[in-house]
Amino acid sequence: MKINNIFITSLTLLCLSGGTSCKKYLDLKPLDGIVQQEFWKTREDLTAAVFGCYSSLVGSPPDVTDRPVPLSIFLWGENRADMVVPTDASTTQEQRDIKDIVNVNIIPTNTLVTWSNLYRTINYCNNVVDRAPDVKANDPTLTDTQYKALVGEALAIRSLLYFYLIRTFRDVPLKLTGVSKDSDIIDIGKTSQQQVLDRIISDLKIAQEGVPETYGTTAKGNKGRITKMAVTTLLADVYLWAENYSASVTECNKVLAYAAAHPAELALIPASSSWYTTVFETGSSTETIFELAYNLSNANPFGAFLVNGSTRRLIASPYLLEIFEQDPNDINNDRPDIRAESYFNTGSMNILKLGNQNTSYSNFQVYRISDIMLIKAEALAFTGGGTEALKIISDLRLARRAVITTQMDPDPSSADGVAEYVLVERAREFAFEGKRWFDLLRYAKRNNYANISLFNDLVSKTVLASAQQSAIAKYQDKDSHYLPINQADIFADLKLIQNPFYNR
Amino acid sequence: MKKYIYRVFCVLSVLLAHQVMYGQAPASRTLTGKVIDKKDKQPVIGATVIILDKDGRTVKGTSTNINGNYSLPVTNPAHRVSVSIIGYKSTEPVTVETKHVINFQLEHSSEDLTEVSIKSAPRKMADDGSGLKVSERDRTTSSFKLEARQVEDMMATSIDQALQGRMPGVDITAVSGDPGAPMQIKIRGTSTLNGNQNPLIVVDGMPYETEIPSDFNFSTADENGYGALLNIAPADIQDITVLKDAAATAIYGSRAANGVLVINTKRGVIGKPRLTYGFKGAVSRQPAPIPTLNGDQYSTLILEEWYNAGRQFAASENIKQFQYDRNDPLNYYNFSRNTNWIDALTQIGYIQDHSFGINGGGEKARYQASVNYINQEGTTKGTNYSRITSRVNLDYAVSSKINFRADFSYTHDNNDQLYNPTITTKNETTVNGVRNVAYIKMPNQSIYEYDEYGNLSGNFFSPAVTAQGTYRGTYNPLALATTGISNRQAERIIPKFQLRYNVSPAVIITGDLQFDISNSKIKSFLPQIASGLAFTDPLVNVATDSDVDGFGVTTKTNVIYNALRKQNHFLTTLLSLQSYDGRTTGQGLSSTNSGSPFLQDPTDPARTATEGSAAANAQQTRTVAAVGQANYKFMDRYLLSGSARLDGSSRFGPGNRFGIFPGISAAWIISDEPLLKKFKKLDQLKLRLSYGTIGNAPRNNYTFYNTYQSYGFSYLDQTGVVPGNVELTNLRWEKKTSYNAGIDISMFNNKITATADIYKDRVTQLFYNDLQIATYNGYSSVDLNSGTLDNQGWEFNLAATPLNSRNLRIDMSLNVAYNENVIREVSRLVPRENGNKVTDNGTFKTYLQENTPFGAFYGFRYKGVYPDRESTIATDKNGQQIMSPNGTPIYMKIGGAALDYQFQPGDSKYEDINNDGLIDYKDVVYLGNGNPKFTGGFYASFTWKNNLKIGANFAFRQGNDLINGTKISSTSMYNFNNQSTAVLRRWRKEGDETDIPRALFGTGYNFLGSDKYIEDGSFLRLRSVTASYTLPQKTAGRLGLNSLRLYVTAEGLFTLTRYTGQDPEVGINIKNAYSVVVDNSNTPPTKTVTLGLTVLF
Questions:
Q1: Per residue in A177-227, pLDDT tens?
Q2: pTM for the full model?
Q3: Are B720 and A54 an interchain contact pair (Cβ–Cβ within 8 Å)?
Q4: Chain A / chain B CB contacts < 8 angstroms
Q5: Closest Cα of chain A to B897: distance in Å?
């Protein structure tokens, strides 16, 4: 009896303590928040995830504090070029790093070479692309059109970021699948710029098919999201970088044709005293093709960085005064180039274009209609359309009330001559929009670095006198035109090899 | 939870059903009798007469009437009857059989109220809380037991304070001398980098949670806020055992990876009620601080510092605060003082402690109940700790087979702490504490504000801006300490039930159930007067309120089966099933700019709504475990024990949730070998060997989920949702394997006992948090199992009673331990050196090298101060000055082209190891190591005629180096911080020979990490000395008392050390492979004198 009892009792105990239900017992889900297994179910989830990608373009997610994407784009596009000058307002590591980049004294531990904010956004896009089919399978209310549009937006955002990355670092890791668990983390090394470019082009073609021409309703809702014209503009820009000029012109024409058909949506705004306010401060104007939208819940990052007098890190360089030279006949400067007076303060050289107040909610302009015009002009120059190119430039200058002093008259048949004019006009049009360095590099690298001597001129304008000789020597090496990969990533991925110039 | 209660209910009903089966149909008759006093033959009124069944369970009971008569129905002739009443001895039960009348004669028990005599000295039992009774003699693992009475005299609010230096291999460090501050307890070194490094506390066999809920990141909650979690009144503690090797801790599993402290509380013993009252009153004082400059010396220094750096004050730069200009009366009166901020903050601390206990019981029921109250006024103004604990431990023998235990403990504590302004930057949070600020606060500033006529206004002088900066960086420390509020109130109730069922002599089943209900509330308030900021500043009148509630259920079911009890073979097996379910919820609220400093609650309407915040958090953890253990004993001298543990934790993903951890240990009692029996002097000689593994679960819940979160702002009026973390599917158990070999010896009738252990603990699959990964993955870090960490060392304990005569008894004990931490293997993702630049002032290099103990620091060698220009010329290795080809001397420089600084007279001189005229990373050398060679303590006591006892307890640490962080900051002369008086001998003019360089504001390289700041941190501290006097029995009796004991204890009387800082006792908190020991002068452990009294009624 006793032994039996012991067994029965212990068995009962064993069962009661949960032998079989142990696995279930230990399966605890977070008491608050939502997990991946429960997300990706409905159309609303997919839309929210796509808006997560956009949000990541303008600011960092909760619990992360790093540089917002527009600030990285701005620094990569302007810091090494000739339109900004660092101030002495800050002695932080970041400011020292900014100065090091200006003086072409760049090392892989420079904090400006981190790309984590861009790749975080790319990962969000990858997640959308990976998981969208699950949503499609689960939610019958998600139509095919909506599905393609949402995936297209994610592809376009990813392509835009890769385009910035390859222009900054040349060869970069091409991560196309989402990372959601630790086993997804594998070393992938770098992919060549050309292969990334090819991928960008093929992705953009898919996106071009999927995304709508307009999201209806408000201008704001259209300009802050990827539309078909945004994709097409990006594609035109990518082709221009890839030196595929005819393809670029084709894409430009699509945009210009759309603009001609929909002048209420897309058109140049004639010069007036409110032009700056309309296009930049208020934003979402008919000139904008794609912008990153800020609002009252999220101020743009340029206030403390550029505007606040005591903390501003960068101011406009004297080169700005040069390209916006006054018309000698216009003694009172009554009709200056409308761009000059609102981009920066000619006295303090404070940069005002990205927000003219300490806390500013101005949107960050990625592409405007003038982009398409100048991309087309540049592409035309190399496809025998010099005359048409000069016409486009002249149209734009007219709209901007450009002064006679800054006019150039290159031979329409000289591709380089026209391209140089475009380069200067782009400087005037897109100052401080994070494009100048890429313009310079595109100009210099064309035809197998035929214009590499352009950097000598750049060095003389920007670099400290004591460092100029070494900077000129460095720029002769075309590998130096790209930034190094940040040290931490080189360390973490054994396959990732440092960019050639920084290996020595 | 419901499920749980249901399950427990089931277990209980199964056990009870078992009993019911024995019930038999009653065939009633009546038993009568009379109870009289044996001496005077008078009837005893009110005596309890009970009928017991064969298992000793009460069937029926009654009381005797006025004539001493009783009558009871009897159903079974096998039942027995017994009589008891207070004041008389209970009778032996008498079997009823066929008797109808049974009379009793009771004997007075007054003469033998002393302790229950023990027949033959049984083997002392060791209680590791597992329920498996093993005598200390038969233990095969490494452990150490301390009786509470050995430490009861100390003025400790928490038992861990009293244990310092008393247990070999247990390193206890005071984090701060503030009341309520936690202690850092380490058993055999750091064995995880995973946050919580404290050992598991087990109280009466059940784990006692001391962990702070993870992910609880309200701004107000910091580690100190939860410090005094180990709040068991020292007076309630019976004994403490530390379990050190993994074979011993296996029974507690995953939370025991840092070792286990098993605490047993006092329980009732058979006898008449015994009342005890204990009182302790103490006065404590802070040791003298490092002397700092007075206002005049400070102002002189600042001006010199400023002009040496080639700067000039602009009118706007607070120059007025140093000008002592009578024409500017406000600044003159308020900034021409000689304030000693530390003195202003410091007060004498008072502590009172009352404890009241009652203890007693009979055959059936025993009880121990206690109430304890302690109130501690800290030595820094604004700090206070008070606590009420009460505990009831009940034991009830239902029958000889079934025992029931119910324990209740309740704690309420109330802790006033200093408001800590925390500065959170990108990577770290710095607490800019009151004492830190007081040390560096400009001494020429007045504490209270003067008006322009030089009259004190009585208000705190808290300017928004001084030369030193603004709030958070600096403030009026006294104003913050006295007007800032940071208060924590906590309640904790732990009811605990145990049912023990002796199924047969061979089988015992116990079921334990423990609830743990806790809540704590933290309120803080920062009034405007403390920060001095403008009324509209978001840092004015900041109120926070947060609340954490916890609920935990722990169960344990043990089945013990004595499988074999033959002549030479003993085999005992244990099966233990354990589970834990813990839930915490927390919420917090903060607001700023409330209308008045008296509106201190965040719910009060405030000027701004946007600066406030609310947060909430909920967490749940579950674990299950099954342990099988078998102890085998052969010939009573060969012992073998094996165990296997299956652990399951909800903190792992489905694939890695369970782990199996085996252990084995053996012992050989050599002294019982027939060959050695003849050595009568040798009482015991035992050899122990053990091997064991144990798993550790990660700190955070839900990491195996990919959690989604929404953005804090909207994009085009829509909310974006993004994944917030990497799902950790690969996270596995951190595994600790420990090897231990030990020897126990006792000789001369236990007059000398010694224990020595040598061990090696290896942690594999080490949790490494936030390991950097390639950022193109979308995340910058991930938690991984990576690396191997070793702790190796030895311990030695010696206890001796060299003299035990009729009048005098001398007891002594000594313990020494050595431990080193070695990283054996680490992920390639871990950087090999810390990111510090050698040319940054005040930083040291540390390198991570496999197979060397970590905690080593590297830097320059300090060679004093360049007295003059001549001396700054670089020299070659023969000491010859180096000249350039054109004959001009080469001067010493620092760092290469980027820094290009030429040393000037009065600058610090660093050794140019490679004689290249350049101080740079090539001149960095090994400077020292923070690992102590030995730690331990010793104890001696003298007892005179059992009445007077004098005991002293020492703790020591030897052979470790310390970075004197306070010396770096107090002699840097680099900013507006006040400095130590050592800078009075600073270099001032060409030719000065001194060891303190010139003052240089914001520039120069005068305090690079060098051996100047590395000091020997060895110390020997007289932890406590106690003199106690116990009243002789007779005298006590005359006073109507059972005993009376008076004592006086002094703690922290003196410390022998060569260390020049405030206190060499600095906690080593290894958070990563580069952690080094830096002394930043927290509130030092105080000097305390206690008067105490214990009365037994």
A1: 999 998 999 999 999 999 999 999 999 999 999 999 998 877 778 899 999
A2: 0.83
A3: yes
A4: 241
A5: 12
